[in-house]
Amino acid sequence: MLASRNVRAAAGARVAAAPGQRAILAARPGRRTLIAAKAQKKEIMMWEALREAIDEEMERDPTVCVMGEDVGHYGGSYKCTLGLYKKYGDMRVLDTPICENGFMGMGVGAAMTGLRPIVEGMNMGFLLLAFNQISNNCGMLHYTSGGQFKTPLVVRGPGGVGRQLGAEHSQRLESYFQSIPGVQLVACSTVRNSKALLKAAIRSDNPIIFFEHVLLYNVKGEAGGADEVACLERAEVVREGTDVSIFTYSRMRYVVMQAVNDLVKKGYNPEVIDLISLKPFDMETISNSIKKTRKAIIVEECMKTGGIGASLSAVINESLFYELDHEVIRLSSQDVPTAYAYELEAATIVQSSQVVEAVERVVGGRVAAHA
């Protein structure tokens, strides 16, 4: 709107600002001059970015549909489908009964017929009730049918620890789903990558479990345009460094960056990698980072036993063992149910102080020598 508005210059001529710009009149001695400045992009919350992604893909592709509990009239448990029922109707935005195994099977069947369903779990913990459909059908169908069927299905929804939702609603399910053949795992972490990654997931022919953290829905930032689609298998180098490689994802990205602020003040120079793709790993980015720093710390919200960190640590030791100057350090959640009490909940997961301590332990001697 501002970009297309004409502004009258002092001489009386009408000058239009260029697309994507706003016109500003600035005073100069003896005259008024038109200055073109780039319009500031509006910041939105992550739930809005996810909603934009779904809306734009439904508008672009009539085979995209949404199903799940309260995704229609209510607009989703975190408003990620707000207004889509009114815009697209009940044939494309379907409120389902409270029967996770049933509507997950419906999503798999819809994908088999050529649709691109987005199945929302009101809470990712509820999807344990649909584990049979996700494992035996969603993940394996392309293989067991000899390639006759594809399942272009996105399973998305909120999960993670941090809102005092108790044990059952604070699940960390990455470790459960990583062992399913044929399923990709993606974890978004910012406004920009959440939108671009979800659009890519919807367009993919593979079944994808898309993890969204409950504490990140209200994070603000700029979202990309309708044409910005991310690579699902690519990690992000959040911060370049030389001392140690810190691998993380989802909400722990922010915990790590909080620790990095303290570490930089102490003279450390850590590299931070947001994995994004939890299955498969982006081994090119991981390898390049470790060959540079020769040290690795993995920070995750998942449980330590059988978690994403366990898998990544194993892969690093198998393929990059001789590049390491120190054993791989894993900082993971405690292997306990998540408590309701805030203090106990916080004690379950990794804190920034633990990241600082780990870096000091791994790199401390060399930094002190250069101090």
Automatic annotation (TrEMBL):
GO terms for molecular function: pyruvate dehydrogenase (acetyl-transferring) activity. Residues 44-219 form the Transketolase-like pyrimidine-binding domain. Pfam families: Transket_pyr (PF02779), Transketolase_C (PF02780). Gene3D superfamilies: 3.40.50.920, 3.40.50.970. Its cofactor is thiamine diphosphate. It catalyses: N(6)-[(R)-lipoyl]-L-lysyl-[protein] + pyruvate + H(+) = N(6)-[(R)-S(8)-acetyldihydrolipoyl]-L-lysyl-[protein] + CO2. Keywords: Oxidoreductase, Pyruvate, Thiamine pyrophosphate. This is pyruvate dehydrogenase (acetyl-transferring). It comes from Pleodorina starrii. The lineage of its organism: Eukaryota, Viridiplantae, Chlorophyta, core chlorophytes, Chlorophyceae. The gene is PLESTMB000526.
